[in-house]
Amino acid sequence: AGFLLCSLLLAPHCTEVAADETQPEPKTPCANWMGGAPGYPGHNGLPGRDGKDGKDGLKGEKGEQGAEGPKGDQGEIGTPGHEGPRGFPGYPGQKGEKGEGAFVHRSAFSVGLTERVPHPNIPIRFNKIFYNEQSHYDTSTGKFLCNIPGTYYFAYHLTVYLTDVKVSLYKKDKAVIFTYDQFRENNVDQASGSVLLHLSTGDEVWLQVYGEGNNNGIYADNINDSTFMGFLLYPDQD
């Protein structure tokens, strides 16, 4: 009986002790518990979903200017813009070189005969005026008087009839050129000549028949003309 009583009293205690050996006490400072070795890290989880866009932040400060890029292709020509306002007058330019004078020197004449030449060895007086605006040709003397020094052109075209013609152009009492035309029976011929001359103020130029009286076959009528002309090409620079 005593043994059974002791067994009954000790049985729960033994069961509790066995239970205590299999179930460790909670980790408390008083339990004198020692933890086990750390476990291995788990695998990385899947990425989460993108979050919502946040609000725009404050505008940052202006950055430094970057390097200049390469030149682009030329663009198409645009439409013309509106005319801008009129600008201010510019500064005066440099003084130009001296130009020629505005005054144009003029000296010219063109005259003709109205009748046959009466006498040789004197100036032929052409009294039909085609042009003599400056009056540099004198119909009373048959001479052209130079008023503007320079280079002149003279020419004559003479109708030849009834007899031969020997004519010369004079400058300052000296024959410059000679023209001879031989008359042919029952024919009307032409004699002509031209020359360039330099004249000084006061020089005179005229035409006259030279030789004997039978060489003055210069002729003119209502259908045939004998003419004399001259004009200034260009005046002397000074």
Automatic annotation (TrEMBL):
Chief location: secreted
Gene Ontology cellular component annotations, sorted alphabetically: collagen trimer; extracellular region
Residue ranges, compositional bias (Basic and acidic residues): 49-74
Region (Disordered): 18-99
Keywords: Collagen, Hydroxylation, Secreted, Signal
SUPFAM superfamilies, sorted: TNF-like
Family annotation (SMART domains): C1Q
Subcellular location: Secreted
Domain C1q: 102-238
Signal sequence interval, chain numbering: 1-19
Domain of life, source organism: Eukaryota
Protein name: ADIPO protein
Source species: Heliornis fulica (sungrebe)
Gene: Adipoq
